[in-house]
Amino acid sequence: MKTTVAVIGCGRIAKGAHFPAFAKMQEEIRIKYACDLIPEKAEALKEKYPFIEQVITDYNVALADPEVEAVFVLTPNYAHYTVTMDALRAGKHVMCEKPITVNYNLSCEMAEEAEKQGKILNIGVCNRYHKSVEMLAEKNRNGEFGDIYHVYCSFRSFRSIPGLGGSFTDKSQSGGGVLIDHGIHFLDLILYILGGATLKNVTCDTYCEMAKDMKAYKYRSMWAEDTKDVENGVNDVDDFVTGYVRTDKASISFNGAWAQNLDQKDTYVDFLGDKGGARLNYCGLFTFCHGDTLQTDAPEYEIPDMYQRENSDFLRSVQTGEKNRNHIDNILESMKLLDSLYASADIRKEIEL
Question: How many degrees, rounded to 5, is the angle at CA 5 between CA 302 and CA 21?
């Protein structure tokens, strides 16, 4: 049975991830509307993906349509809350891209509204559907790590601040910088693999150093360069972050950088257990070291499209009412962690949770 949906927001994540996935899901999904405030964006998608039935600029048109069962909210961060709340109140199920929204309190309001309306609200932390993450979570459940006592992750890049001066670097619109943009993926997959760890305390430092003079900032390439505004825009978010987290299961340390003066990219997660350990190359394969045999396995396997799997599972939840791994109730702890880390950085002290 096909689920009739509306897609709100036709920018990069729609073009680069979700619509290529939708193209492989035609037996599951009917896209009645593609909506964007800039009609050319939606029209360009319709030209490439003719299964889109209508292009609109006002998402309320879709919310008023009784045929629409679910909505994909693929807007910038600042719009997640408003669009999702409107969709839930209109009786629609929602798949909202990460992060939930710009802070934890508003995220909790979204969860409460979904519960009140009896609707599914999923969040697009897509790595929970990545084959490597699933395999490591299974290894942990099977006891192959033994006791995971520490996790370290790095999400560092060379001078890669996105859309400098635009919504990415304006805290009022994005909620933060590299931590909320990249860190949410890494920290959420860590909590998922650990199996629902409870936060104890956090400490964090954030820095906005590399583009204090936006006009003088040098780079080789820039994600979302068409949104940059170095003449009139704002850059008040973190381009580097470092922190430490204690949970009831493992400690976590991390370093993240949109931009650093080291011409290399380090994106990986290390899981240290007393029986085994693993390095996960972000969005790639992993290696696993067995403490008893001193052997390291480097399994090779196919990695299915995690966006397709994430979206298909959301549609199944719409049909069945069952909450899956990306339901907002399962993601709130990750958002609480982000908020707590930013709060610690603001006061430059450890925070007890």
Answer: 20
- pLDDT tens digits, residue range 27-59? 999 999 999 999 999 999 999 999 999 999 999
Assigned token pair, 275: 């029986």
> Mean pLDDT throughout 82-92?
98
Average pLDDT, the chain: 97
C-alpha separations of 116 from 109, 110, 112, 236, 316 in Å? 10, 10, 6, 36, 20
| 148: amino acid identity, one letter | I
Confidence bin at 282 (pLDDT 50/70/90): very high
Residues 235, 171: Cα–Cα separation, whole Å:
8
Which one, of 335, 341, 339, 324, lies nearest residue 128 by Cα?
Answer: 324
Q: Name the strands in the sheet holding 199-207, side by side, starting at the edge strand that comes first in the sequence.
A: 296-297, 286-290, 276-281, 266-273, 148-156, 251-257, 240-247, 199-207, 351-352
Q: How far apart are CA 273 and CA 156, in angstroms?
A: 24
How many Å separate Cα 43 from the centre of its chain? 26
Phi-psi region of 142 (alpha: psi -120 to 50; beta: other; left: phi over 0): alpha
Cα distances (Å, whole numbers) of residue 212 to 217, 238, 325, 335: 8, 11, 39, 27
> Residues 168-198, buried b or exposed e (16+ Cβ, 10 A)?
bbbbebbbbbbbbbbbbbbbbbbbbbbeebe
Cα(336)–Cα(331) distance, integer angstroms? 9
How remote is the C-alpha of 103 from its chain's centroid?
A: 14
Taking the whole predicted model, whether its pTM rises above 0.70 is answered as yes
Beta strand 93-97 with 70-73 is parallel
For the cut 90, the answer to whether the pLDDT of residue 259 exceeds it is yes
Q: What is the pLDDT of residue 196?
A: 84
* Residue spans of beta strands (DSSP E) within the chain: 3-8, 29-35, 54-56, 70-73, 93-97, 121-124, 148-156, 199-207, 240-247, 251-257, 266-273, 276-281, 286-290, 296-297, 351-352
